[in-house]
Amino acid sequence: MSTSHGKAREEGGRTNRLAQAKSPYLLQHAENPVDWYEWGQEAFDKAKAEKKPIFLSVGYSACHWCHVLAHESFEDELTANMMNEYYVNVKVDREERPDVDRLYMTFLQATTGGGGWPMSIWLTPDLHPFFAGTYFPPGNFRQVLMKLAEIWEKDPERCMASGKQIIAVLRESSNIAPEGHVNANLLTTAVFEHLQKRFDSKEGGFGSAPKFPSPSQTLYPLARFAAYHLSNPGAEAQDKNAAEVARDMAVLTLTKIYNGGIRDVVGGGFARYSVDERWHVPHFEKMLYDQAQLLTSALELYQLLPSTSRSRTTLELMAKDIVSYVARDLRSPEGGFYSAEDADSLPTRDSTVKKEGAFYVWTAKQLDELLGADAEMFKYHFGNVLFTAHTTEETGKKFDKAPEEAQAILDKALATLREHREKHRPRPHLDDKILTCWNGLMISGLSKTYEVLHSDKIANEALKLAEEAAAFIRAHLYDQASGTLSRSYRDGQGPTGQADDYAFFIQGLLDLYEANGKEEYLLWAIRLQQKQDELFHDHVSGGYFASAPDEHILVRMKDAQDGAEPSAASVTLSNLQRLAHFAEDQHTAFNDKARSILASNGQLLKQAPHAMGTMVGNALMGERGYKQFIYEGNSQDSESPLLSLIRSTFIPNRVLLHFNPSNPPFGIANVNGSVRSLVEEVQKRKDVKENVRICENFTCGLPIEDAEELKKRLPLLSGA
């Protein structure tokens, strides 16, 4: 199922041992004259036997500056000879081995004050770090190589002592004493106030250029802060006002992103970040995790807005754009989702040098030639770098067209450009490894698409995509006998699964179960949570390790800070809180582990809650308490007025259980007393009308059969 992207040439040209790797990133370096090793025992044994330091290079296949460093230094014979003579050289794909990346990135950030990729680390043969950097210009890189080689040759003991001391400090800093009670309401308010100070009220987003969407740090906690107060009838006026501000900051950010150049208006999908403050000029790589998180955020904020808001239309278009893009360009034939598309590509099929954005940018001359009479309207509407410079109404008025006619002309022009691009421009490199964690995020977004846009034709497509992605993971990345997950798949399974693989995929399964009502997904999620607890839960100090047990990872860290993705700990907190109600017989055990996550991160939560936005948002839902909705009827009935009502508003503390009287969920009944009671009850009843029970604090109300009555019982979002 692999593509030819990134494969080493089989004929002509020498290859190193990375030619046998599965990672597309490692395969990109298979023809380097550098004598690369993969992370593993062979490299470590060689370093010890030859008493050489290790040069560790970490990156990922869609990383532009990784490509630059490779071209300038790793492809250079002189530099490669120096590396081979003085070092054992190890190449790591950070997406395959986040545990390696996490440990040494912590060292890099602690010693330089910054981080990023490519990451360059010098290690002792015992894997202790003693020097770190990121990208080095070619001349500077050779100087660093020689200087560190001299230091090692003259005084290796000094390097080893320094490395051991550094690891000891990292180990000590990871052993933070648990903190007591965490006030989630105060923490969420602190996150809101922090983001409000950094908010760009003109262009959306938080902070200055470059701008990243960063949903886990911004949009996710803002949506929960807004829902918490807008759905609380007893909330004070200032809290409701703050909630509306939080919602509107998030909505403006997403609408600016959708209308900016960060969106590929021709082919769909969103780039990783914008180099300017207007979301105008993108860094063109497209990551699966961005598509998944932006999809989820767009749908959540869509539900938080009044039905009359024009921004709802934009957010709906954004969601549909993402679903269409990933289904067409990031989906494997077997149903799993690929990881990324690169920023760099060849401008034409005759070109030999890749350029950043070559697949995406257009000159005015090209637009004139391809679009003819429609070119002027197109350029007015989309600007030079394609972004939405004017609304359809403004464009129609400018060219004396009705908005509908103007939109039809623009759609035709986009189709023309898309056809030309696919036919005449080489696509960017595709990182075609399939990661369990990012597929979990995508399954969540697709499942929510089905629930929120259930009346649209894209809903069933999204649900089918989610189910097929889950089926791919079951077939290729899950070991039924041991109950374990693998990290990645490309020409076979990759490394062992990490905490985020379990957390994100469990979340995806819970969301998929709520969408389609098939108990197999919930039961699978419960089993995976038990396996995650076994492998990653710290039974001594509480909380969860981010890394799988591995003798070569010198410090197992509990990194709960959110980054481009939410942390595994943050998502696990939500999973445990939800599972305490899905599998309520194990409520105490799940809740105790959830509380241990907050306690183990209590000090950091109080010092810098904005660094853990997803955890803070999930803690707020736990503090609010979960509402258990038990739907009794046919969950496959997309026309069900009761299900439609439950799904019509954003209820982040919702747990939706499905009970089909004609096919009772006996597996769920084994772990849920409320469902067990229904199984016993339904066997005594003959005629069962569709109904919903709402349960809180393990007390369930009477069945509600009338849609209007159910509407009265749902959280009403003021201002929505």
From TrEMBL:
One of its GO terms (molecular function) is catalytic activity. PANTHER family: SPERMATOGENESIS-ASSOCIATED PROTEIN 20. SUPFAM superfamilies: Six-hairpin glycosidases, Thioredoxin-like. InterPro entries: 6-hairpin_glycosidase_sf, 6hp_glycosidase-like_sf, Ssp411, Ssp411-like_TRX, Thioredoxin-like_sf. It comes from Ganoderma sinense ZZ0214-1. This is Spermatogenesis-associated protein 20-like TRX domain-containing protein. Gene3D superfamilies: 1.50.10.10, Glutaredoxin. Residues 15-170 form the Spermatogenesis-associated protein 20-like TRX domain. Transmembrane segments: none annotated. One of its GO terms (biological process) is carbohydrate metabolic process.
